[in-house]
Amino acid sequence: MERAEIGELFTAAADGDSAAWKGLVEGLAPLVWSIARSYRLSDADARDVFATTWFKLVQHLGRIREPDKVGAWLASTARHEALKMARSVRPVPLDDHPALLDLSSAAPTPEEVVVEAERQEAAMARARVLWQVVRELSDTCQRLVRVLMTSPPPSYAEISAATGLAVGSIGPIRARCFGRLRTLLAEQGVA
Fold it and tell me: pLDDT of 17-32, one tens digit each?
């Protein structure tokens, strides 16, 4: 696929053209997939790298300044994600990973890629609504929700230090904030 074609597809996809997304994914999926597999990750980990790479592209749609270089951006992101994954897991020996020997069998089909992209797009839309609703909460509730969303979950002492709330008041305030959040989400038709 030529860089100019990639740039046109990316620009159209960023404007919401689902056919362009499909064309972009079909054209660049082999590149992303081959990079993910090159780190000798398990099939599940390679799929995670593949999905994360495309998810990050969706997250950074507005930040891509040179659409014709989105292939290089994807390759760089896939390498970064694969390296991060490889550092966190033990590599699978080639003998134990037949999918690495048969390069055609492990790659997801274009339909699987499109379905995954649509699933991630729907999840991102729900997340956008969630964070829009969180911004409608009081400042205290916003701070508390943001701290509670961290991973791993913080201790009450850490929550207290981050929010300035007394340890004994965190539970009741959390209950009120989440109750209000549920109400607002229900009003948006999300809950």
Answer: 888 888 888 888 888 8
Question: Is the previous residue joined to 98 through a cis bond, with omega within 30 degrees of 0?
Answer: no
For 3-108, the fitting CATH number among 3.30.70, 2.60.40, 1.10.1740, 1.10.10 is 1.10.1740
Residues 6 or more apart whose Cβ sits within 8 Å of residue 77: 53, 56, 57
Q: How far apart are CA 20 and CA 37, in angstroms?
A: 25
C-alpha angle with apex 119: 66 to 75, nearest 5 degrees? 35
Residue 102, Ramachandran bin (φ over 0: left; ψ between -120 and 50: alpha; else beta): beta
Residue 19 to residues 23, 31, 67, 98, 171, Cα–Cα distance (Å): 6, 19, 17, 33, 48
CB 53 within 8 A of CB 117: no
As a whole-number percent, the residues of the chain with pLDDT over 90 amount to 14
Nearest to 83 by CA among 107, 111, 115, 49: 49
Cβ neighbours of 96 (radius 10 Å)? 9
d(CA 188, CA 180): 13
**What pTM was computed for the model?**
0.48
Which tokens sit at 34? 């081959």
Angle at 22 between CA 18 and CA 25, to 5 degrees: 135
